[in-house]
Design goal:
four-stranded mixed beta sheet; glycoprotein; 308 residues; 35% strand
């Protein structure tokens, strides 16, 4: 017999997938509005030898938002906006260095944390409301609303224009705008003051650092029909021929209304009171706009007859 020593070398083949270490966790958080922030770290190993066991990482579905380093550390590539999206499910791929690499994926959850980066925004930039004159003090003329896209905002309201605070109150919690005094249309017109008020309001996030939201409020004081027309005389007299034809002008009545000129309430129109002048009203008439008293029919009356 004879003996010899034989050395057998077992060569590696790429027969293992990279395996993620799940003990590191897959639920991460990151603050919004900053780039290059650390999100979290993953780790994968491959028991194969040489290049077959070298692990490389890649972000599969959000490569424009997140980047992963060679050691598995994930960072934000650019600032995130929680108000646009507050959660991401990122697919991380681990592959080995073989010519035909084996791959494994892992889903990690990223929650975007809020910071105060939004000002309150009113439901309208311009509010316009009509308020009847002589409305009672305390009358609510408008309800303002504003929202803040940030979490846990505490919005309060205030009037920014100093002069408007003398006329209106604004509930800091509810946003209700109310009258502090009675406003008379005729008094404002007599003073040469426009019967409308335009002022600025603000919505403030009490716990935040962003500037207040702003809006413009315009309140128009509308005229009410405060006055009755007043005739220039208590009694008008006129003469007409006993046989006057239809349409003959006998006299003209005139009444004036103290409501502001040009408003509908200031226009005076005339008519015969048929209940009090049942007979005369069938013979005489008054023109609606001019006040001219005319014959309604061709007359055939006795001289010196008096009609009222």
């Amino acid at each position: 017999t004879s003996t010899a020593t034989v050395s057998i070398v077992v060569t590696d083949v790429n027969d293992n997938n990279p395996t993620f270490d799940l003990t590191l966790g897959t639920n991460f958080t990151v603050q919004e509005e900053k780039a290059n922030l650390f999100v979290g770290q993953v780790n994968a190993t491959d028991p194969d030898d040489g290049v077959n066991g070298q692990v490389y990482y890649r972000i599969v579905n959000y490569p424009d938002l997140f980047v992963i380093t060679a050691n598995g550390s994930i960072y934000t590539r650019r600032p995130l906006d929680r108000e646009l999206r507050n959660h991401y499910s990122i697919v991380v791929e681990a592959s080995d260095g073989a010519v035909d690499p084996r791959k494994t994926t892992l889903m990690v959850s990223v929650q975007v944390l809020d910071i105060d980066d939004n000002s309150p925004v009113f439901s309208q930039q311009d509010y316009v409301v009509n308020v009847p004159e002589n409305s009672l003090v305390g009358t609510v003329v408008l309800k303002l609303t504003a929202v803040d896209a940030d979490l846990f905002s505490n919005i309060t309201y205030r009037i920014k224009t100093e002069s408007a605070r003398q006329l209106f109150s604004l509930n800091r919690i509810t946003g209700e705008l109310a009258l502090l005094q009675t406003l008379d249309f005729e008094s404002l017109a007599a003073m040469g003051v426009e019967a409308s008020f335009t002022f600025q309001v603000e919505a403030v996030d009490q716990g935040g650092v962003m500037p207040p939201g702003q809006a413009t409020v315009t309140v128009h004081i509308t005229d009410m029909n405060d006055f009755s027309p007043i005739f220039s005389k208590d009694l008008y007299k006129g003469l007409v021929a006993p046989n006057a034809v239809k349409g003959t002008v006998i006299t003209t009545v005139f009444a004036k209304d103290q409501d502001p000129p040009g408003t509908p309430a200031s226009f005076v129109r005339y008519r015969v009171d048929m209940e009090k002048s049942l007979y005369s009203g069938n013979i005489f008439d008054v023109e609606t706009e001019t006040g001219r008293v005319i014959t309604k029919v061709n007359l055939s009356e006795e001289p010196s007859v008096t009609f009222k």
